[in-house]
UniProtKB/TrEMBL annotation:
<dbReference type="InterPro" id="IPR036366">
    <property type="entry name" value="PGBDSf"/>
</dbReference>
<feature type="domain" description="Peptidoglycan binding-like">
    <location>
        <begin position="179"/>
        <end position="220"/>
    </location>
</feature>
<dbReference type="InterPro" id="IPR002477">
    <property type="entry name" value="Peptidoglycan-bd-like"/>
</dbReference>
<feature type="domain" description="Peptidoglycan binding-like">
    <location>
        <begin position="281"/>
        <end position="334"/>
    </location>
</feature>
<dbReference type="InterPro" id="IPR038765">
    <property type="entry name" value="Papain-like_cys_pep_sf"/>
</dbReference>
<dbReference type="Pfam" id="PF01471">
    <property type="entry name" value="PG_binding_1"/>
</dbReference>
<dbReference type="InterPro" id="IPR036365">
    <property type="entry name" value="PGBD-like_sf"/>
</dbReference>
<feature type="region of interest" description="Disordered">
    <location>
        <begin position="244"/>
        <end position="281"/>
    </location>
</feature>
<dbReference type="GO" id="GO:0016787">
    <property type="term" value="F:hydrolase activity"/>
</dbReference>
<protein>
    <submittedName>
        <fullName>Peptidoglycan hydrolase-like protein with peptidoglycan-binding domain</fullName>
    </submittedName>
</protein>
<keyword id="KW-0378">Hydrolase</keyword>
<dbReference type="Pfam" id="PF05257">
    <property type="entry name" value="CHAP"/>
</dbReference>
<dbReference type="InterPro" id="IPR007921">
    <property type="entry name" value="CHAP_dom"/>
</dbReference>
<feature type="domain" description="Peptidase C51">
    <location>
        <begin position="38"/>
        <end position="132"/>
    </location>
</feature>
<feature type="compositionally biased region" description="Pro residues">
    <location>
        <begin position="247"/>
        <end position="270"/>
    </location>
</feature>
Length: 342
């Protein structure tokens, strides 16, 4: 069985694919007829990535899909559909299949488009990878206003296993945190009798986990001085007592970081957006590459902005909280020099 990581890897491999017919529409047409060679292909892309990554059963519960409405209904029929509210989108996960209605409703019958969630940004916003967006595969940032909902594929489980111990309370865990330490907390809460009925052990510290922590804190006023919903040292002691364990030791602290390199002043923006394809060349490209190399990025300083330069640009934009589009525009150019080097 495939995984969400595999599904995303398949989608990322096609970023930049443009025009039709293309390998995605040809693959679909080979099974369903030549009418699909030049048809709208957003859901054909999802189908292609699912089949390529071994996720056909999870992502395509009703079989191959080119029609987004039917695909969303497939998830609805098996109880894996979530409407596009801000609260639900904040609980979305990478690998969820997200459906759009440009008329801004949450009505399945009005769905126009589909993609895959790559990252949850908060406040009802997600970063996606979509086929047939501008007749290409691209990353997009979308908000709840245009999201009708998402389907959650039953991807294969990873190798996470709880060690049976209460997690340390430092660093403090709170709403928005994620990862195995959150799963350790959720596993311990369930073992202690607290309820996580909707999401269970999902590694996402959301409303449900916060409510369970609040109840834990309220149940132990002799240990926890304030009910906050945040899991800290006092909550860890309370949870350990509930499970008959010794209080956990704090997690090892990270070594103090080296002082950041003072920011430099950015040279004037060259006045053109550096992007590819086609490969752009020039002294401005060379200057940007040289500065990125100074910042520690592995990049060839050759004055040619090709796929590797775009890859570095995207990673830098993601690191600095910019729109991830792979284009060196005014803000990316400025922060290349002025953002601290951590």
């Amino acid at each position: 069985m495939g995984t969400a990581a595999g599904m995303l890897a398949a989608a990322r491999a096609d970023i930049g694919l443009a025009g039709r017919p293309n390998r995605i529409t040809r693959d679909y047409a080979a099974r369903h007829g030549n009418d699909f060679l030049s048809a709208p292909w957003c859901d054909m892309a999802v189908t292609y990535w699912a089949r390529k990554s071994g996720n056909r059963a999870a992502v395509l519960p009703g079989g191959d899909r080119a029609y987004t409405v039917w695909h969303a209904q497939d998830f609805q029929k098996i109880g894996r559909w979530h409407s596009g509210t801000v609260a639900n989108l904040n609980r979305a996960k990478p690998g969820d299949i997200v459906f759009f209605d440009w008329g801004e409703s949450n009505t399945i019958g009005a769905i126009d488009h589909v993609g895959i969630i790559e990252k949850v940004l908060g406040d009802g916003r997600v970063q996606t990878i979509e086929g047939n967006t501008g007749d290409a595969v691209r990353r997009r940032i979308r908000s709840a206003a245009v999201i009708a909902g998402y389907g959650r594929p039953a991807y294969g489980a990873d190798d996470y296993k709880w060690n049976g111990k209460v997690p340390a309370g430092e660093p403090v865990l709170s709403r928005g945190d994620e990862g195995d330490r959150v799963r350790d907390l959720q596993s311990a809460l369930l073992k202690a009798g607290y309820k996580l009925p909707r999401y269970g052990v999902d590694g996402q510290f959301g409303d449900e986990t916060e409510a369970a922590v609040r109840q834990l804190q309220a149940d132990h006023p002799d240990i926890v001085s304030e009910v906050t919903g945040r899991y800290g040292p006092q909550s860890a002691v309370a949870l350990a007592r509930k499970l008959g364990q010794e209080p956990p030791q704090p997690a090892p602290s990270k070594p103090a970081p080296e002082p950041s390199t003072p920011p430099a002043s950015a040279p004037p923006w060259p006045g053109r957006y550096i992007t590819q394809p086609p490969v752009m060349t020039g002294d401005d490209v060379r200057r940007w590459q040289a500065r990125m190399a100074e910042r520690g990025w592995r990049i060839t300083v050759d004055g040619a902005y090709g796929p590797r330069s775009e890859e570095v640009c995207r990673a830098f934009q993601e690191e600095k909280g910019l729109e991830v589009d792979g284009v060196v525009g005014p803000e990316t150019w400025r922060l290349t020099w002025e953002a601290p080097i951590d």
